[in-house]
Protein 1
Amino acid sequence: MSAVPLPPTTAPTTPAAPPLPAQIGKYRVLGRLGEGATSEVYLGFDDFQGRQVAIKRVRAAAAGGDPMDGHYSERFFAAEAALVGRLQHPNVVQILDAVPDPVAPYLVMEYVAGSTLRPYCRADQLLPLELVVEIGFKCAMALGYVYRQGLIHRDVKPANLLAVLTNGVVTDVKISDFGSVLNLGSDVTQVHRVGSLAYMSPEQLDGSTLDSRADMYSLGAVLYHLIAGRPLFDAQTQSAMMHQIYHADPAPLVDLRAGVSAGLDAVIQRALAKNPDERYADWGEFAQALSGLVTTQQVPRGRIQDVLDSERFTLLRTLEFFQSFGDVELWEVVHRARWQRFNFGHALYRKGQEGNSFHIIAQGEVEVFRDGNRVAKLGSGTSVGEMAYLAPSDELKRHSTDVIVTKPATTISFTPDSLMQVSANCRHLFHDSFIRVLVRRLHAAHEAIAHPRRIL
Ligand SMILES: Nc1ncnc2c1ncn2[C@@H]1O[C@H](COP(=O)(O)OP(=O)(O)OP(=O)(O)O)[C@@H](O)[C@H]1O
């Protein structure tokens, strides 16, 4: 686990790595993923569920080590064990199981194929600015989710943010290591001074009562490090570092890296305000400030991805169709939907074609023609093709109209198979939205019968 009480313990002298265990509980051990101050992390395989998992086994207890270490390990283990099955968010590592083995207790987590964000803090390995902002957005949204569960992480740092790597490129991020978490619902006392000094807010340092703005400061400090390639503050001694955290202004990011705009600098510096009241009021505000940098082009656009996940998320959030979707379900849509761009004149559907997909128009406009007559114009936030998609019989699955793009459109689409990939809750929300759409269409059809010449 990552939390280090102050004063920090000296780095453990790591003996040569012990041989790999063949099995931990019901999990086959496939390899070693890493190690922390208090634990070893293994790649395991769950034969029952048929999936890879990460197993974090407490080392101090296994070695029957120092009672102090053992004491802390137990506390950290208990904190994470209490969260089994509780945190379900695409940007939070899921804790799947906790086994309080008397010799070596272990946690089983979702396996993240990648590395921590630590290597990307090095000046020669910095990530593109737009990716850092994207990581910030996702972490802010995820920590907002964590906070709504009544939790404050208290140890947000690069080593606790796992980067998902796809072909060597960072494509996603997941918050891990809840060993220092403060559970506002059940922890009667706040055990002060857990966390990592370099990313620690002034109020966390002096043991004040914390709220989510302490994590906000830490995330700001992580983003600062990822942008600048150097930590917020750097000092030879712990007391000098503490003095800087209390009193020093961080060097402006615009001076530390080419391409950093005043806007980006200001967004990060606000999260780093010494006084929590001067930071963002809530996580939504911080996330919005970060995504706003992309929409207002205050971060240079590289070519990592044509459209960022955060842009897609923000776009979907504005659409009526998704108004009842929570953040978690909306992220599922961002990741699972097929996103397509269509030019003017493209036929989304032709009369007589069998429908096995539906589209939701994210941007642009389509018109619906029945036998050459325009019968409807559909703009962003509406669905099209859902009638054939939902039809109970093959005969009704054939489209009865032509649907043509009349303003360049971005749509997201699902097939029955791809909709089965999302959670039951997310599917349920789709069905709710379809009911609303269909009731409106029915009403429109009645109007059309009553006023046949009107275009709907
Ligand atoms: N879910 C996971 N999937 C893949 N790798 C993981 C996962 N969790 C942890 N790791 C790897 O194991 C390493 C150690 O994990 P972790 O930081 O949770 O242990 P720790 O004992 O808390 O460490 P520290 O005290 O140094 O923060 C991580 O740096 C990471 O490389």
Protein 2
Amino acid sequence: MTDIQDTPAEVAAQKATTLIESLPWLKKFRDQIVVIKYGGNAMVSEELQDAFAQDIAYLRYVGVLPVVVHGGGPQISNMLQRLEIPSEFKGGYRVTNTEAISVVRMVLTGQVNPQLVSKINSHGPIATGLSGEDAGLFGGRRRGVVIDGEEVDLGRVGDVVEVDPTPVLDHLAAGRIPVVSSIAPDLDHPGQSLNVNADAAAAALAVSLHARKLVILTDVPGLYADWPNRDSLVSHLTSEALVEMLPKLESGMIPKMRACLDAVEGGVDAAAIIDGRVPHSVLVELFTSKGIGTEVVLGKNEVTA
Ligand SMILES: Nc1ncnc2c1ncn2[C@@H]1O[C@H](COP(=O)(O)OP(=O)(O)O)[C@@H](O)[C@H]1O
Ligand SMILES: CC(=O)N[C@@H](CCC(=O)OP(=O)(O)O)C(=O)O
């Protein structure tokens, strides 16, 4: 932290320390694909969106290959409310009827996606919008959810069961940042779309791209082992420990931690949950030794506070 009495030379030395700390991480992530999931709860202010767009542009200009997958849960809820369409969550997933799916698609692909693309493009003509429905990117299949041992129908909600990464790879090869919305065509009902949880979509894409890292931004500092006890924040855990913890998790954390597990089991080196309310948390996670939030890696049972 810069002190008011610091001399210009001291201030310069502190800045140099921060910059040089990033060197091993710049080397590690250069030319590597990093999938970043931007959740609707981390988009709540203009300032946060601007800081996020700066981070993504920064990554691209230092030679990382960022791919953004975004959600927009609160934005969908607002629109459904305005249109007086009832909406509820079961097991962390939105129950989505035929009326609701068109609103989900309109908000994600028609509103949140171009807004994010335009913010990133204020730094240069580098970002391009994609939906999971474009050029065969995602293929989805309906899913329900098991609550208290009973299968509950979620309507037009699905899992990404197929990914063709070609459209994303084409954009990366052209030097662009793909920004992807989490809608998938329903493979069993041609012409219909499915609402896919954005954490799950990001994990499926990260696996298919052989990404080096998956980073998920949310509105908490990370995973709490004993939620809501604020002293139980986990900084690092292995896939085996996460498998044990999953059945005890609640609501929004279920799809998020499931996504981290799927990513590392699918060959992604590491997956992290970070606090998107902290400006520039993406850069801190990727380019500092300690990072920020909770990191998951493949391995035997181990949890670090
Ligand atoms: N064990 C846990 N650790 C951290 N947060 C948890 C936990 N269990 C439930 N939560 C809740 O999950 C929320 C994040 O999920 P969600 O609201 O779906 O976020 P997003 O919109 O970023 O995808 C947190 O704000 C918190 O209220
Ligand atoms: C099936 C399901 O729940 N889909 C989510 C898709 C958006 C999303 O995941 O947004 P966040 O990342 O902001 O939570 C929804 O309808 O809210």
